[in-house]
Specification:
Layout (H helix, E strand, L loop, with lengths): L5 H13 L12 H13 L3 E5 L2 H11 L7 E5 L5 H8 L3 E5 L9 H7 L4 E4 L11 H11 L2 E5 L7 E2 L2 E2 L6 E5 L12 E5 L2 H11 L26 H32 L6 E2 L12 E5 L3 H13 L19 H4 L27 H8 L1 E5 L6 H16 L8
Parallel strand pairs: 2-3, 2-4, 4-5, 5-8
Antiparallel strand pairs: 1-9, 6-7, 8-9, 10-11, 11-12
The structure holds pyridoxal-5'-phosphate (PLP).
The site of pyridoxal-5'-phosphate has 14 residues, from α3 and α4.
Length: 397
């Protein structure tokens, strides 16, 4: 999705020429400091920590929330497995909940799955589609659990005027190769909460107690890890950030036109979107009444030369393919394995979230593009209309 060019080359050249690759050398105001300030301003949060990946951002967010062994964290059955892996990495158990037709967490199912051990819920803004944050936040508040937004696929997105990653207690972003902006591998954790911030800061930097800023840290130092980003990646991210609004504008304009043109086409509905303006516009969801219609449409559209696929087939993004989790192998060492640190017997099965499976199988995605002409987009829209109006072979409608 991302765009990269000479500006990034120049930024990297500048960092290498400076000889300062480490973020904590050379005092304040380095590339990483400046990126964190800019990202925090963009998202609208008090604190940002740039880290090495989206997974690291989620791990630091959970550590910041003080979550660990004996705790449960609710995640959707439709997300990249890293969301659930991050929960296991801090020693907590991921509880898998249903999604709704908007393809984000189903707040009603979250509520059903909250036990006395639940400490947090992770709504995931898949494909830049904002999850139903009003409903999820209300359930979380009612039960006194925290909210960590997984905004790894939603850099720059928003929900009713607030940026994704600023609505929950903390947010995690990814800048890996597949995301809206990228530095190859990278991430950021965002929060307004000082305690979450300082714990995450310590967790991401095992040397935190020895830094110049150590005196500011208001939580006890503990042995953290190392998820520190470096100045080269931060320099790339500073340039990437200047491209973000342009990328989102293009994706959103494509999706807006597709939504307008396809709103009244019979054969499918547009997948409901919780906040049309804030949606990143990465993909258009089409929702069919039956799986047979969904599959027939996809194969005919693919035959017509338009890329289209169901999120049901998105491999590691659907819970029934999370083999290490379904088999409850949470770590390399039994004493570090969340499933062995509790007397609670957890049960997962490939059919534990039937609603999620059904919705995903009835959904087809049409991708948007950042470099397509309007004529080419209208051609795609025309083909979708044609396929929708042609009688599907062997499918009862
Ligand atoms: C990409 C992604 C992550 C993890 O990000 P990495 O940078 O690859 O660690 C987490 N959650 C979701 C939903 C993602 O798409």
């Amino acid at each position: 999705m991302y765009v990269i060019g000479n500006e990034e080359v120049e930024a990297v050249r500048r960092v290498i020429a400076s000889g300062q690759l480490f973020r904590y050398r050379g005092g304040e105001g380095g590339e990483t400091d400046q990126f964190e300030t800019a990202w925090g301003a963009k998202v609208g949060v008090k604190h940002t920590i740039a880290v090495t990946s989206g997974t690291a951002a989620l791990i630091c967010g959970l550590a910041g929330m003080g979550i660990g062994p004996g705790d449960e964290v609710i995640v959707p059955g439709y997300t990249f497995m890293a969301t659930a892996n991050a929960v296991l990495a801090v020693g907590a158990v991921p509880i898998i909940a249903e999604i709704d037709e908007s393809l984000g967490l189903d707040a009603a199912d979250v509520e059903k799955k909250i036990t006395s051990r639940a400490k947090a819920v992770i709504p995931v803004h898949m494909c830049g589609l904002p999850a139903n944050m009003d409903a999820i936040t209300a359930v979380a508040k009612k039960h006194g659990i925290m909210v960590l937004e997984d905004a790894c696929q939603a850099d720059g997105g928003s929900y009713h005027g607030k940026r994704l990653g600023s609505i929950g207690d903390a947010g995690g972003f990814s800048f890996n190769h597949f995301k809206i902006i990228s530095c190859g591998e990278g991430g950021a954790v965002t929060t307004d909460d000082d305690t979450i911030y300082y714990r995450a800061l310590v967790h991401h930097d095992g040397g935190c107690a020895f830094r110049d800023h150590a005196a500011e840290v208001t939580v006890p130092f503990y042995a953290g890890s190392n998820f520190r980003i470096n100045e080269i990646l931060s320099a790339i991210l500073r340039v990437q950030l200047t491209r973000l609004d342009g990328i989102l504008a293009k994706l959103r304009a494509e999706k807006k036109l597709m939504r307008e043109e396809l709103a009244d086409v019979s054969g499918f509905r547009l997948s409901p979107v919780n906040c049309v303006e804030g949606d990143c516009g990465v993909t258009l969801g089409l929702l069919f009444d039956t799986v047979a219609e969904s599959e027939s449409f996809a194969s005919r559209l693919n035959e017509a030369g338009v890329g289209c696929g169901s999120p049901y087939h998105s491999g590691i993004h659907v819970y029934w393919n999370w083999e290490p989790i379904l088999q409850q192998r949470g770590s390399y060492h039994p004493m570090r394995d969340a499933y062995k640190q509790t007397d609670v017997k957890y049960e997962y099965s490939e059919d534990m979230c039937p609603k999620t499976k059904d919705i995903l199988a009835r959904t087809q995605y049409i991708g948007t593009s950042i470099d397509r002409s309007k004529d080419d987009l209208m051609d795609v829209i025309g083909k979708i209309k044609n396929v929708a109006s042609s009688t599907p072979a062997g499918v009862a409608v």
